[in-house]
Structures are given as structure tokens and as C-alpha cells.
Specification:
Oligomer: single chain
Structural class: mainly alpha
Number of helices: 10
Order of helices and strands: HEEHHHHHHHHH
Strand order of the largest sheet: 1-2
Strand content: under 5%
Number of domains: 3
Distance between the termini: 27 Å
Helix content: 40-55%
Radius of gyration: 19 Å
């Protein structure tokens, strides 16, 4: 067995273990009959395989070859567990309050992925109508959310989200500490340091000066902690 095959098996085993712990059902999909793939939360297959989604829904997908590439695995897991979280927290207990609370927790994750979607979803939540059935509202939000997460975030998007979150500490950090924070984020934006540098620094200050809103942001925990090692590889 080659080293890459061994790594692939290890990562698949870890994913299956985590999925089992989260009590997520796993089902096999017949690629010849893909008209109604839901309800499932994601798909892993051979390179080149695609799983047909309904016309208004983007399904998380990952090829076996991409599992060994941190940026692809991070992206897939973020989509996968965001969708699962939405199903659990919104669809199963549907209310405007549940939808608003969900959006609030995902604010900076959405911002990192897409500025356009961040503004669009923000307006959508701010203008919920009592005249539209709630299940229709939730379905449309889910559609927009998964579309926003369909393309992995770039350095510009991550930088914007990091800078916004860094602003929460402007009153508690001294000028040197604020400068270090901004400098580290900009160095990441320029490709000089990895994502883990500003990410870890932000998390460090969050432990020193806890902020309830930031602590609860899914930006810091988009998937189970078993995969947190990915953050140091982006």
C-alpha cells in the first residue's frame, strides 16, 4: 500500500468516525439514478463524478483525490457541516427566531466566502415577511447559503472577515497589539504567512478578552474539532 493510499484510508476512516459521532446517516447513492439525491448532506466519489442536485440546491461534493488536499477538504467539511447544522437547528425546529439565530452565528463565515452573499443574506434576514410561508423562506435561505459556500474563500474574503473580527478588540488592545494584529492579517493577504497566523492570533486574543458574539461564531468551528488540524495547513 502506498503512502498516499494509507493517508486516504486514514482520512476516510476519520471522516466516517466523526460522521457516526454526529449521528449523521450515511447512504449509498446510485449514480445512475440521481434525480432525487436528497436527503443526504454530501457526496464523496471518484474524480470526475458529479451528483445531480435539484435545480435550486447546491450539494457539497468531494472527490477521493481531493481528500488529501487541505483546502478542498476544509471547503467540503465546511459545506457539509453547515448544511447539517442548518437541517438540525432550522429545518427541524422551524421559526423565524431559529433562522435569525442561525444567520447570526454564521455571519463571518459567510463574509469570508462571499461579500455579495453576505450583503444579500443580511438583507434577506432583515426583511422577513409575514406574508410568505416560513418553510418557503427557510428553503430560499438554504439555497442562497449553499450557493454562497459553493466556492472556497480566497485571501481577500478571509482578510475582510478577519479584519472585521479584529475590530472587536480595538478598545482592549494597545496600539502595538492592534498593529501586530493588522500587520499579521495583511501579511496573510499578501501570501507571506499562512492563514493559521492571523487565525491563531485572533483566537488567542479571544481567549484573553472573550466576546460572546465572536465565541459563538461558526467561523471558528465550521466542522468538528477532529479536523481542526486543517486550519494549520491552509
Amino acid at each position: 500500500m502506498s503512502n498516499s493510499d494509507r493517508q486516504l484510508q486514514e482520512k476516510l476512516a476519520l471522516l466516517c468516525h466523526v460522521v457516526k459521532d454526529e449521528k449523521i446517516g450515511i447512504m449509498q447513492i446510485d449514480l445512475q439514478n440521481r434525480d432525487h439525491p436528497l436527503p443526504i448532506y454530501g457526496y464523496i466519489g471518484k474524480e470526475g463524478d458529479t451528483l445531480a442536485s435539484s435545480s435550486n440546491f447546491t450539494l457539497p461534493q468531494l472527490s477521493l483525490e481531493q481528500i488529501l488536499q487541505p483546502i478542498f477538504l476544509d471547503h467540503f467539511l465546511t459545506q457539509f457541516f453547515t448544511l447539517f447544522d442548518y437541517q438540525q437547528r432550522v429545518n427541524q425546529s422551524l421559526s423565524k427566531g431559529a433562522l435569525i439565530k442561525f444567520h447570526s452565528r454564521y455571519k463571518y463565515l459567510i463574509m469570508a466566502y462571499s461579500q455579495v452573499a453576505y450583503r444579500e443574506l443580511g438583507r434577506y434576514i432583515a426583511n422577513l415577511s409575514d406574508e410568505i410561508p416560513l418553510d418557503e423562506i427557510a428553503s430560499k435561505y438554504q439555497q442562497k447559503l449553499m450557493k454562497a459556500l459553493s466556492v472556497a474563500p480566497n485571501r481577500e474574503g478571509q482578510t475582510n472577515a478577519l479584519m472585521h473580527m479584529a475590530g472587536y478588540f480595538k478598545r482592549v488592545l494597545n496600539s502595538q497589539q492592534r498593529q501586530e494584529m493588522s500587520q499579521t492579517i495583511l501579511l496573510y493577504r499578501q501570501g507571506i504567512v499562512p492563514f493559521s497566523k492571523p487565525y491563531d492570533l485572533l483566537q488567542y486574543w479571544l481567549t484573553i478578552y472573550p466576546d460572546d458574539y465572536l465565541v459563538n461564531q461558526r467561523y471558528f468551528s465550521p466542522y468538528p474539532s477532529a479536523f481542526n488540524y486543517l486550519r494549520s495547513q491552509l
